[in-house]
Amino acid sequence: MSADRSVRGIRPSRRAGIAAAAGCVLAAMAPATTGVAAQAYPTTANSISRADKAEGAKAHPDLLAEFGGALTGPQASYVEQVGKTIAIQSGLSNARGDFAVTLLNSPVNNAFAIPGGYVYVTRQLTALMNNEAELAGVLGHEVGHVAARHSAKRQQAASRNQLLGVLGSVLSGVLLGDSAFGRLGQQLASQGSQMLTLKYSRSQELEADRLGISYLKRAGYDPRAMATVLDSLARQNALESQLRGSTNQVPQWASTHPDPASRVRDAQAQAGSGQSGSGQVGMTNRDVFLTRIDGLVYGDDPKQGIIDGNRFTHPDLRLAFQAPEGFYLVNGTQAVSINGDSGKAQFSGGALGTGLDAYIQTVFASLTQSGQARIVPSRIERAEVNGLAAAYGVAQVQASSGPVDVAVFAYDFGGGKAYHFLTITRVGGAGAFNGMFKSMRRISAGEAGQVKPRRLSVVTVKAGDTVQSLAGRMAYTDAAVERFLVLNGLESGARLVPGQKVKLVVY
Domain 302-449 maps to which CATH number in 3.40.1000.10, 3.30.360.10, 3.40.50.1400, 3.20.20.80? Predict the structure, then answer.
């Protein structure tokens, strides 16, 4: 949750037009065919229209804000260079200057493109890649969605269906059923990196991958990179589920997109044996890529708060809290979501206004959909938590799946600022979050100063280095070997070769 946006409170998702225009995480990519025939895509765009440029320019600032902003410097320039090289293969424009490629400061594995020549990839997804061809494949796939005019079709779908983010889908589907009370799900899902994406159809994913692989071949890249990056995403998906302790807890980047695991074999087959069947598979530029992304921030940026296990610390806002055991946290630019089998929650903030009572009433009022009865707590109770003035209220709401308890627990942080948890549980279950409510505290300047980001460190394997010894240098106390293998696209039992470059995550 970024410091400069944290006091704006819980807001609904951005307008559907932007959401429909935004592309998808690469986890949604599908296989491609060798030698794509032009007639296979009768709806493929062959230019960037003035209308597209205007639409893209209008959406661009919002997208930057929702995804943590744009990174600058040598790493961003490198990504921009690769992105423009692959984008011009689409035929939308032969001018590199017609494309704007942005490296986003987001800890979520994501990539997307919008009409007008705007292409985006997060630093987290970039860090998961292992060569330049994979980066080109990711961006080419997203440009393929634009070239195939998929956003227009998704806008039509968006006009028929309310946009819900990850948490909203879980809440409305699991706790709220299909009732009109899905508005609460939308509010709770107000998390930048999830709420701007809509799911492409299977056929659209297939089409975008066919185009993406054709772009790789035209640019001289190894088309098999599409399959290898899909494999990395699938393995990352499995690892995140393992670390969270449940295969039902879908990582944020995979929440609205098909699992890439089922597509790896198809992508391998579609890439073929190489260019012209000669066995020459094109360039990967692995060492160049690794050298250029060395030092990239990995995971949460302290400016947006840090998640460490079930603890959240925000050095700029000078606060910290701990989620209940068995729950996991997902950080967003506007809020932190807390997810578990017994309930869902979101941590956010806003202007205190006239006091905690009014603040809590305002949060409840924001959950009420137009035309429905106002949601109000039965009463508001005062409390004190670690020296902070606090208050809470609970409202029982009838959902199609049965009654649920919606609770707001708010804290006065002084200076006109307040922060709150918004939780939803089955009736009588709000107590599952009591420990979290009581854990909220201010942190000292010294504690805030000790919060450091994790970064990628590209190292050269030396004689005697093993997977285990290098993994032991990772900035994690759990699953270090598994994290190292997935990060480097290595299989279990892999042997390292002196001179080989590998990635570590260090403080």
Answer: 3.40.1000.10
Class of domain 454-506: alpha beta
Per-domain residue ranges of the chain: 14-163+198-275, 302-449, 454-506
pLDDT digits (tens, 9 = 90+) for 458-504: 999 999 999 999 999 999 999 999 999 999 999 999 999 999 999 99
Tell me which residue of 403, 354, 360, 401 sits closest to 382, measured CA to CA. 360
Nearest Cα residue to 330 out of 61, 107, 105: 107
Task: Please report, as a single letter, which amino acid is at residue 328.
Answer: Y
* 380 CA to centre of own chain: 35
Report which of 257, 137, 261 is spatially closest to residue 200, judged by C-alpha positions: 257
pLDDT at 266 over 70: no
The predicted-structure confidence for 362-417, as pLDDT tens digits, reads as follows 999 988 765 667 889 999 999 999 999 999 999 998 877 788 999 999 999 999 99
Kindly give, in sequence order, each residue whose CB lies less than 8 Å from that of residue 126, ignoring residues fewer than 6 positions away: 79, 103, 135, 293, 296
Which residues sit opposite 102 in a β-bridge?
Answer: 120
